[in-house]
Write a structure and sequence with these properties.
By secondary structure, the protein is mainly alpha-helical. Helices cover 62% and strands 6% of the residues. Strand 1 and strand 2 form a beta hairpin. It is elongated, with a radius of gyration of 26 Å.
């Protein structure tokens, strides 16, 4: 059928592109190259054909030649993500380029960083005032449905800077990557909003009253004067629903993916997978930022930032590992005693007293085991916590 259409309309570029793709899918790389080259004779700036030539050449083991074509496509259209992502793949993972790795056998992180910087600078239209009014955020010439791919690029840029020893630069890129999908908010503003919401929670108020003899502040907060924010797992899981009610807890930059998921009749279809993948990347990105703040603190009390970041990550993707990390952090917080429940040897639970941080940690360990009953670190840490509280038999069990 495509060949018939081509005979009727020999210069129709979409038909030629489909023919090239069909030949590639059937394993006929030479024919695919022939039709992509025909497209470029008609339109020398047709980036889809350039990118396809790159993909075809890579399949033939000609990675160096493939890179040349992908770079040509990216320079003509920096937002052509297929070419950007393919080029990132061979620069960071030379094995993906098959026989001819082009430029050495190891990863070429500096070249990959140059690619990220080129695309970032080309698509950025400058800064605009943030919705929270505390600073500026970058404005990008990217369609809403492509924001998740922009975020992945900026995330990669942060990872590359970190790998090259630029920790401060990595943190800036991670923050930019999150801000690309926050609908105009700065990441600092989101963290402050989490703390402000958390200040209204009963466990937070009890903690601050008993430890500091006053309620936690809920107003006039800034990133430099946040109180310690304690949230039970159920409230952490829905914190984004409170902050972004208009999108039902979906990050504003992913609202288009959410709408596509809603419109799809198949819950496990491609639209659902795209939203899940976007949330997965964003969740890992926030975790990376939390770990940077733990290891390279920029405020006097890093946990005031670290805990909200962990809550955001957990709200984006329920993860047993995140529950485990939260449990470790919370169990180490000096705090007054509170009533709680611990596992009983007879099954079920029994009443107990424990420091508030430890009691909360136990809830996160339990939540994590609900997500993965075979997670060894959760069992180990829960057992250690029970032992420290004096429940040795329960810990052994």
């Amino acid at each position: 059928m495509l060949l018939c259409l081509h005979q009727l309309h020999p210069r129709h570029l979409p038909t030629l592109l489909l023919l090239a793709c069909a030949y590639f899918s059937s394993g006929n790389a030479e024919k695919s190259l022939e039709f992509n080259e025909l497209i470029l004779k008609i339109d020398p700036n047709y980036v889809e054909a350039m990118s396809n030539i790159g993909t075809t050449l890579r399949s033939m083991g000609k990675a160096a030649d493939a890179e040349t074509w992908w770079w040509q496509a990216v320079k003509l259209r920096p937002g052509y993500w297929d070419a950007v992502e393919n080029l990132m793949g061979v620069l960071c993972n030379p094995a993906s380029g098959s026989k001819d790795a082009g430029g050495g056998s190891g990863p070429r992180y500096r070249e990959a960083l140059q690619l990220c910087e080129f695309v970032d600078n080309s698509l950025c239209m400058g800064d605009e005032k943030s919705r929270g009014g505390t600073g500026v955020v970058g404005k990008y010439q990217v369609q809403d449905k492509q924001l998740s791919r922009l975020q992945s690029l900026l995330y990669s840029e942060g990872n590359l800077r970190f790998a090259l020893g630029d920790v401060a630069g990595a943190r800036r890129e991670y923050e930019k990557a999150m801000e690309a999908v926050l609908g105009g908010y700065r990441l600092d503003e989101l963290v402050v909003r989490v703390a402000s919401v958390g200040a209204q929670e009963g466990i937070n108020q009890m903690f601050h009253q008993q430890l500091h003899h006053q309620l936690p502040p809920a107003h006039s907060l800034s990133i430099d004067n946040l109180p310690l924010t304690l949230l039970v797992p159920e409230n952490a899981a829905r914190i984004l629903q409170v902050i972004f009610p208009e999108t039902r807890g979906v990050l504003p930059g992913f609202a288009g993916l959410s709408a596509a998921t809603t419109a799809s009749s198949k819950p496990g279809g491609a639209a659902t997978s795209a939203l899940q993948q976007a949330n997965h990347v964003a969740s890992n990105l926030v975790l990376q930022l939390a770990k940077l703040h733990q290891d390279h603190a920029v405020v006097a009390q890093p946990l005031t930032i670290v805990l909200p970041l962990y809550y955001i990550s957990l709200a984006l993707e329920a993860s047993p590992s995140t529950c485990n990390n939260l449990g470790i952090i919370l169990s180490a917080i000096p705090s007054p005693p509170t009533a709680t429940l611990v596992p009983s040897l007879q099954g079920g639970q029994q009443a107990a007293q424990a420091p508030m941080g430890s009691a909360l940690a136990m809830q996160y360990y339990t939540q994590g085991l609900g997500l993965d009953r075979r997670h060894p670190h959760l069992y180990t840490n829960l057992g250690s916590l029970l032992k420290d509280l004096g429940y040795v038999a329960e810990a052994v069990r």
